[in-house]
Write a structure and sequence with these properties.
The chain is of the alpha+beta class. The chain has 2 domains: 194 residues, DNA ligase/mRNA capping enzyme (D-amino Acid Aminotransferase, Chain A, domain 1); 126 residues, OB fold (Dihydrolipoamide Acetyltransferase, E2P) (Beta Barrel), CATH 2.40.50.140. Helix content is 18%, strand content 36%. The strands form 5 sheets. Strands 13, 14, 15, 16, 17, 18 and 21 form a 7-stranded antiparallel beta sheet that branches. β4 and β5 form a beta hairpin. It is globular.
């Protein structure tokens, strides 16, 4: 019997197990021998479900995305596959099969039936890191280390190049783990995942079992150029900010950011905006370019929708640089060079 393409009502995913950010010193977690360390991959979290010779791929948002990634069905359709549910990440890959930057995945998003050209230009892989059902048995209450062993055996049995296992990292100390985390971007990774070996696959977040230990964010100094009022309890304050970088003698807007300031700082910035508005465009105010802020972000990707030609992933305000004048803000070329480096 061969694989069948699933209907939307066929096979449903389990609730996802989620991780907390690691915000304390890792030594507080105890002996590293009690933990599994692996890279945190930058892609789309998903569950690959094989049930009664049917294949389905679900996103963390419980959206059936099998049609958007038909290569999984294609590679498994002629195999006699066991019933199983794999948890992992759909990651973009380069021509050598190595992880590519997240923006390489963008052309695949929102397409229900990608063309052969898109499939060829933007290949993906399912990098599995957990097995939560096997041969009809719910494994969620089994220890993680046991589930990992079964996962390795299953992926070896499937023997398809579009599915692999997130490798465990050998670390004899938290210092060694931190060194790997600091170099994680060289592996196309966002940082490390730290999981207790004996942890079960619980629903949602449960502090103490799974942590994401991300690399330190990138930062850049930018100038506030536009502002707009917020919502809710901050509807009378300006909390929606647009920032710019230098391009020659011109300040070019490149990102928005909404969070990162204290309540006192928000009030001070709002007062500055009211006193230094140059133009109004409906709810938006163009302000005198005078305030400099350090913007933190997770990554850069090309964008045709933005004048600057780039877009930041997860931008937020790290701090108000009251010590800097606008002439000391960064240049757009700095980000363009970072983008070029990430694509090579």
């Amino acid at each position: 019997m061969f694989c069948e393409h699933p209907s939307k009502a066929s096979i449903k995913p389990y609730p996802f197990c989620l991780a907390y950010p690691l915000e304390e010193a890792p030594h507080n977690l105890g002996h590293i021998e009690n933990w599994i360390i692996e890279y945190k991959w930058d892609g789309i979290r998903g569950q690959l479900i094989m049930n009664n010779q049917k294949v389905a791929l679900w996103s963390r948002g419980e959206e059936l995305i099998t049609d958007a990634f038909p290569e999984f069905f294609t590679q498994l359709e002629n195999k006699c596959i066991p019933d199983a549910v794999l948890d992992g990440e759909i990651i973009p890959i380069d021509n050598q099969g190595n992880p590519a930057p997240f923006h390489s995945l963008q052309p695949r998003l929102g397409r229900k039936k990608p063309s052969k050209k898109i499939l060829s230009q933007y290949p993906v892989k399912f990098r599995a890191y957990d097995l939560i059902e096997y041969n009809g048995e719910d494994l969620r209450l089994k220890p993680l280390i046991e589930r990992k062993n079964k996962l390795n055996n299953l992926v070896a049995q499937l023997n398809v190049n579009i599915i692999d296992v997130s490798a465990l990292l050998r670390c004899n100390s938290w210092e060694e783990a931190d060194e790997l985390r600091a170099r994680a971007n060289e592996m196309g990774s966002e940082g490390l995942m730290v999981k207790k070996k004996e942890s079960i696959y619980h629903t949602g977040r449960k502090k103490g079992d799974w942590y994401k230990w991300k690399i330190d964010p990138q930062t850049i100094d930018a100038v506030l150029v536009y502002a707009q009022r917020g919502h809710g309890r901050r509807a009378n304050l300006y909390t929606d900010y647009t920032f710019a970088l230098w391009k020659g003698e011109e300040l070019v807007p490149f990102t928005k950011a909404y969070s990162g300031l204290t309540d006192d700082e928000i009030r001070l910035v709002a007062r500055f905006i009211r006193q230094n508005t140059l133009e109004r465009f409906g709810p938006v105010r163009r302000v005198k370019p005078e305030l400099v802020f350090e913007i933190a972000f997770e990554g850069i990707q090309p964008s045709k929708r933005h004048k600057a030609g780039i877009a930041l992933r997860f931008p937020r305000i790290k701090r108000w640089r009251t010590d800097k004048k606008i002439e000391q803000a960064d240049h757009l070329d700095t980000l363009l060079l970072k983008l070029e480096s990430s694509m090579n």
